[in-house]
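User: Can you help me understand a structure? I only have the sequence.
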Amino acid sequence: MTPFGFNIHIDPSIDPHAILVPPMITQPFVENAVEHGIKDLHENGFLDIRFKQVNKQMIIEVEDNGVGIHHSMQQKNDKTKSHESMAIKITKERLDVIHNDSGGKVGLEIIDKKDVNPFDHGTLVRIILPVVEQNTSKSSTNG
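Assistant: Let's start by predicting it. Here is the structure, written out as tokens:
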């Protein structure tokens, strides 16, 4: 595998010690970006992970400059396709639970960048979550 660059950007308005992000919410998309997007690039692979807060929403973006989701899906066999579909299905189910618990807006967008600009390539995944602040007055337990 060719080395690649990456950037993780956390908006300065976000206090990483006070805002909660569901565990493993970005993991399947980061893994897919590396494994299916930029792994086979010969050079200049890049992964950009961004955490932004807009009003009461957390927007997490995982963007790569790889082959794009459409091309990647064409290259996969049926077993891999169903595995990836399962990861998306599970993430959507988790987002539904978050929505039901918080009442806040949730969303998942997976965009092949070539669909937006025919000269671009790669995939952009956008996850929208309600901002949940850690309650520091109660003792927390890990379950």
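Now, to help you interpret it: Helices lie at 27-38, 69-75, 78-102, 113-116. The beta strands are 5-10, 19-20, 46-54, 57-64, 107-112, 123-130, 132-133. Let me know which part you'd like to focus on.
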